[in-house]
Amino acid sequence: MQEFLRVRDFFSSKEKDLKLELIAGKGGLDRKITVSDISRPGLAFTGYFMHFPYERTQVIGKSEFAYLESLPPQKQAELLNKIFSHENAVCCILTSGLGPTPTLIETFDKLNVPLFMTSSASSALIAELIYYLDAKLAPNIKLHGVLVSVYGLGVFIIGKSGIGKSECALELVKRGHMLIADDIVHITKHSGHSLFGQGLSVAKHLIEVRGVGIIDIRSVFGIGNTLDEIKLGLVLELKEWDEVKKPERVGIEEQFREILDVNIPSVVLPVGPGRNLAVLVETACLNQRLKNKGFFVAREFGKRISQAIEDKKNAH
């Protein structure tokens, strides 16, 4: 789980995209960005500092800059010191091609806080910056399993080694579904409590099948049978039949598996001779899609039984 991003890494990866130029505070490039939120310090420039988010990346646009530039150099330095001398200060970006005042450069060099400038407008920069930092700082985890897309639903297949996860995924691919990752799945929590999974770049589009070896799904089955990333919609655990004490018969009670504090619908699928796993996975996915739309077959069945009992009582 990545808890921070160093300013130097942010700068090296987004220098071209965001048209960034480092103009002061080079000594602070090892400062850590810990939140994806962005702040515009206009209110702080007027002297109001209550609840000020020092830990955020600060963006100075045209209005903030015009106000700051209207102040005497001594007042500029005083305000900038109050904001950026804080221990949690990260960096600051001047937008819209604004040229820094001598006081800005002097203060940021003195405080060792990176000051960047860009020709991008504030709104465009902030939108791109939040999107980038959200992805970089999002909670994430790597788990053992196979991730496939079945009827557009992201299915994370788990189970002990040798249970048949990869073979099941291969059969699903053969039936027209898509492989996202085999063996190690990198899961990231995005805004809105959604989980997205993808494979490791070194094993992209590859699947290991015992007795056959490593297979390149894209080369063998075509580009239409692979996908880079998908939102998790179902966790499907394969278990040997003898290990499942009470196999689900009706399915009235919903099961969930918690990953990164997000509950994902879960199904335990007993594995035994004669069971076509690929067909069962497809059926479980179609059933989950119905649940997502508000149609719960097992509960509808329960209502029918209750109504039948009630009708029988009334008939007597």
What would your notes on this structure say?
- The structure is a single chain.
- It contains ten helices and 16 strands.
- The protein has 316 residues and is α/β, with parallel strands linked by helices.
- The chain has a five-stranded mixed β-sheet with strand order 2-7-6-5-4. A five-stranded mixed beta barrel has the order 8-9-14-11-10. A two-stranded antiparallel ribbon has the order 1-3.
- Strand 10 (178-190) and strand 11 (194-199) form a beta hairpin.
- Helix 4 runs parallel beside helix 5 and helix 7 crosses helix 9.
Strand content: 25-35%
Radius of gyration: 27 Å
The number of helical segments is 10
CATH topology of the largest domain: Rossmann fold
Strand order, biggest sheet?
Answer: 2-7-6-5-4
Shape: elongated
Distance separating the two termini: 64 Å
So, the CATH homologous superfamily of the largest domain?
Answer: P-loop containing nucleotide triphosphate hydrolases
| Mean pLDDT across all amino acids | 90
Q: What is the CATH architecture assignment of the largest domain?
A: 3-Layer(aba) Sandwich
Q: How many separate structural domains?
A: 2
Please outline the major beta sheet: 5 strands, mixed
Question: Secondary-structure element order, as H and E?
Answer: EHEEEHEHHEHEHEEHEEEEHEEEHH
CATH class descriptor name of the largest domain: Alpha Beta
**Low-pLDDT sequence parts:** none
Structural class designation: alpha/beta
Give me the count of strands.
Answer: 16
Overall helicity? 25-40%
